[in-house]
Design a protein that fits this description.
The complex is a heterodimer of chains A (about 220) and B (about 525). With about 220 residues, chain A is α/β, with parallel strands linked by helices. Helices cover about 25% and strands about 30% of the residues of chain A. In chain A, α4 packs parallel to α5. Chain B is elongated, with a radius of gyration of 34 Å. Classes of the chains: A alpha/beta (about 220), B alpha+beta (about 525).
Chain lengths: ~220, ~525
């Protein structure tokens, strides 16, 4: 097989137009940023430094009919969640799971397509591997708001720039975010960066297509 | 709705035996995929039971006749019985070959009492040389079991009005005909319908899903789908005129299969499935033929096509069409006499969650049993000014009602995008101007000076890159004691954008646009 044929195969496999039953759909605007056209079932995704991006990731499956659960995030902005397109009637919230959070997450993984969690501290490696094994069996996606050791996909905001707000006038309207995408294997084994409207002036999520804003115009954010 | 059912015991055996011309009194079993589906009384005498492996049955009775399960033969043989019953009452619904139901009210009035009517029905079928019993109860399930529990030489049994639950209570759970559920219940030590019925419905729903909940409803004597209730829309009926007339079954069955697909698809796009089907056929010279088939749950396109084919076979065998006197079929019509929400057993209970939703709700109930009911919440859009007010959290399972109307005007609330993080406990902050003086908001909703630094949470003062506001809100202005005069300001600092709130000169961080 020649290199060109192989490349064609790879390209067609990455074609976002193809429906992937092994993956949950993403918002249209996110497909250009991530290595695959969907959230691979059974995978773990860690989103660091931004809650909005986590909401945008949840919105794709939620709009497509999936049930999502959020564990341990009492401060989640649910109005923003609805604005990104998350269906609130299929969203279960367990704001304070307490000591039982691992059992709660395990029970939810069995039934929900996406379970988002915000761990209060570092997750013991044994527990993490038990949860991911269960995840692979049931085909859900675990979305961690914060660090997750060994996550398949890791998204970190590097910088952001708000539009619409001046010195005493206007209001926050739109934001460009610089996101670093890394992961364990495949196309993201080498980290790459991209710019995202989060949200765009019309409220949607999209990859920045016009000449990307120079990095120095961003406020650099420290990873939380 | 009082229901009369007519039941022919061991119908698969009776039909299969008739087809090969042996007496149903012989030891006979009817098998499907290697397991005994039905057995004759003589076979039962040898210790043979339903669900037994064929080999085991043959060991118990070496001269056993083994016949294959054939729904077409069963339906065809049942047709004369239904035709006979229709001489007594018009609308007979076939539940399956060997079992049919009618509304009891009309016949009871005509024959003087429910018992008289039931006996008359059973006797009418028995006159054809077929063993037959009748039962009357409030629901189809109880009426069928009444017919099945008759012992001795009786023909009919009537369960008094409102007596279904009491009648069903001592029955063994095996009568539910849901092997997995029965197995589970047995392991929980539940052996009778009464014990099953005593479980709280909510728990049953959580543990066994909607199929379990439907069975639970049956055990409690609740008939969600009374016989003869017509709720479906006749405009969804599928009808074909055929020319030249069809006199061959295979041609008619082929047409019926296409119509079944069409009907199932038309219902499917509305989220419905057929649960009771009216089949109507017009022939060249004969009378119009009509038969109703009822199903426990939603029928698939294949289920519909099967029933139409069985019915056509039945009519053909009684020469209702296809021979010289009646002629061929000139019109075929399929009408959903009753519909249910597709994919679920009971409409009212679930409101169409689908399989995913059912699984999710079961997991939620498990979490609620772990942490308490209020630990799982749902978000409901609500009216209000601040980002926290505009979402109302209700315990999962409670009614999702807003506290304040969200469509009412809320002047001064901030348009989208809303903050992605809303602090549960707002954090006190200090906002200063270029000279280091605290910034205030005047009664005319203007800042006293442009804010240049913000500090909160014990952190150092962060420079303000941009800001906007204030957006004043007078909450409960009509009540001087609880009235609040607050204002909100958006600021951008190096660590991100914040929503600040000022009340009585004190600044707070309310939310983060992170």
């Amino acid at each position: 097989m020649s290199a060109a044929t192989l490349r064609n195969l790879v390209t067609s496999a990455n074609d976002p137009a193809q429906v992937d039953t092994a993956a949950l759909p993403l918002l249209q605007g996110l497909t250009g940023l991530l290595p695959e056209s969907g959230l691979r079932r059974g995978s773990t995704v860690a989103v660091e430094g931004t809650t909005s991006l986590a909401l945008a990731l949840l919105a794709g499956p939620s709009q497509a009919g999936s049930w999502c659960a959020v564990v341990g995030a009492p401060e989640l902005g649910l109005l923003a969640a609805a604005e990104y397109g998350i269906a609130l009637d299929r969203l279960a919230l367990i704001p304070r799971p307490g000591q039982a959070w691992a059992s709660v997450v395990a029970a939810l993984i069995d039934a929900f397509d996406v379970v988002a969690i915000r761990p209060t501290g570092p997750v013991p490696p044994g527990l993490a591997s038990r949860l991911t094994a269960r995840l692979r069996k049931h085909g859900g996606v675990l979305l961690c708001l914060g660090q997750w050791e060994g996550a398949d996909l890791r998204l970190t905001t590097v910088g952001e720039r708000w539009d619409g707000l001046g010195d005493g006038h206007g209001r926050l309207r739109a934001r460009r975010v610089r996101v670093r995408v890394s992961g364990r294997h495949g196309a993201v084994a080498v980290p790459r960066e991209g710019q995202l409207w989060l949200p765009a002036p019309d409220g949607s999520v999209a990859v920045v297509t016009e000449p990307p804003t120079p990095l120095r115009q961003f406020q650099l954010l420290e990873a939380v | 709705m009082r229901t009369l059912t007519v039941w022919c015991p061991d119908w698969p055996v009776v039909a299969a035996a008739a087809a090969v011309a042996i007496s149903p009194g012989e030891p006979i079993v009817v098998v499907e995929s290697g397991l005994v589906l039905a057995c004759s009384g003589a076979a039962r005498g040898h210790g043979i039971r339903r669900g037994m492996k064929v080999r085991e049955a043959q060991t118990r009775c070496p001269h056993l006749t083994v016949l294959r399960h054939d729904p077409v033969i069963e339906a065809r043989t049942f047709e004369p019985v239904v035709t006979a019953l229709e001489e007594l009452t018009p609308r007979v619904a076939i539940l399956r070959p060997g079992l049919c139901a009618v509304r009891a009210r009309g016949p009871a009035r005509y024959f003087g009492s429910e018992l008289a009517a039931a006996e008359r029905f059973a006797a009418h079928a028995t006159a054809l040389g077929i063993d037959c019993r009748a039962g009357v109860a409030d629901g189809v399930f109880a009426a069928t079991l009444a017919a099945r529990t008759i012992a001795g030489g009786e023909l009919a049994l009537v369960v008094p009005t409102d007596g279904d639950a009491e009648f069903l209570a001592p029955m063994r759970i095996d009568v539910l005909d849901r092997p997995e559920l029965i197995d589970l219940l047995r392991r929980l030590g539940i052996r009778t319908l009464g014990a099953f019925a005593a479980l709280p419905p909510r728990e049953v729903l959580a543990r066994f899903g909607s199929a379990g909940a439907a069975a639970h409803g049956l055990a409690r004597g609740i008939d969600e789908r009374p016989i003869g209730s017509h709720r479906a829309a006749p405009d969804l009926a599928v009808q074909r005129e055929v020319n030249p007339p069809i006199d061959r079954i295979d041609t008619a069955a082929f047409l019926a299969a296409a119509m079944a697909d069409e009907l199932a698809a038309a219902l499917g796009v509305r989220g419905l499935a057929c649960a009771c089907l009216d089949i109507e056929v017009s022939t060249e010279h004969g009378p119009q033929l009509h038969r109703q088939w009822r199903h426990d749950g939603p029928m698939s396109a294949d289920d519909i096509a099967d029933r139409v084919r069985w019915q056509l076979e039945g009519w053909a065998s009684t020469r209702a069409f296809g021979d010289i006197s009646a002629g061929g079929i000139i019109q075929l019509r399929l009408e959903p006499a009753e519909t249910v929400a597709a994919g679920i057993y009971q409409e009212g209970l679930w409101g169409g969650l689908g399989e995913l939703g059912e699984r999710a709700v079961r997991a939620i109930t498990r979490v609620q049993s772990l942490l308490g009911q209020k630990a799982v919440v749902a978000a409901v859009p609500n009216g209000g000014y601040g980002p926290a007010d505009r979402i109302h959290l209700v315990p999962w399972g409670d009614e999702r009602a807003a506290v304040r109307e969200s469509s009412a005007p809320w002047p001064g609330h901030l348009p989208a995008p809303s903050p992605a993080t809303v602090l549960t406990e707002r954090e006190s902050a200090a906002v200063t101007d270029a000279d280091g003086h605290p910034v205030g908001v005047t009664s005319r909703a203007a800042v006293t000076a442009a804010p240049t630094t913000v500090s909160y949470g014990g952190g150092p003062a962060a420079p303000v890159v941009g800001w906007a506001g204030p957006w004043p809100v007078e909450e409960r202005w009509w009540d001087p004691r609880s009235a609040r005069r607050i204002a909100r300001v958006q600021v951008i600092t190096e660590s991100g954008a914040l929503l600040l709130l000022v009340e009585n000169g004190q600044w707070w961080v309310e939310a983060r646009y992170d």
